[in-house]
Specification:
3 helices; 27% helix; two-stranded antiparallel sheet; alpha/beta
């Protein structure tokens, strides 16, 4: 019985530890093959520290160049980055109960024990704007668990993985 309980607890813990989730939206009328160059909006207010903003911008540069785009002073696409962080309290718990009674009477005691604890999350929204029409044409919103106290190498790795996931389905196929 204890073995099954342990498997259940471990399963809930694994399920609750999600990785990066990304949602996309784009203008279906746009022919994305017409875009060849990009750059970042000047004076972006990313919501990140300058160090993390630079890490994310560097990671996006690599992904965009791998996809055949060229960084330009007169870009077809402007990239805007907005981020936010929030703390999520654990929604998982284990219930423990004691009960008893006889002949119509009874006593019951219950308690919920939280599993895991709170998690820090970061959302990163990446907007791609047609620079000539000043029109949003593509957007990705990622949500990730983030470890706040980590070393610079781990932060580079984190932003590299997030940017790869964000741009995985860009440009959209018709």
């Amino acid at each position: 019985m204890m073995k099954y309980f342990l498997v259940l607890v471990v399963s809930f813990f694994i399920i609750s530890c999600g990785s990066t989730q990304v949602n996309y939206d784009y203008d279906e009328q746009i022919n994305f093959s017409e875009y060849k160059t990009y750059n970042f909006l000047p004076d972006m207010q990313t919501g990140l520290s300058q160090l993390d903003a630079n890490r994310l911008i560097d990671a996006i540069d690599i992904v965009m160049q791998q996809k055949g785009f060229v960084k330009s002073e007169t870009p077809d696409l402007l990239i805007n980055i907005i981020s936010d962080q929030y703390r999520e309290n654990s929604q998982n718990s284990v219930g423990v109960g004691v009960g008893g009674g006889s002949y119509g009477g009874g006593l019951s005691i219950g308690a919920g024990i939280p599993l895991g604890g709170s998690k820090d999350h970061q959302t990163i929204t990446v907007d791609l704007v047609d620079s000539k029409q000043d029109m949003l044409i593509w957007q990705a919103v990622s949500d990730s668990n983030i470890v706040l106290n980590t070393n610079p190498q781990d932060r580079v790795s984190y932003y590299t993985k997030v940017s790869q996931k964000i741009f995985k389905n860009f440009p959209p196929e018709k």
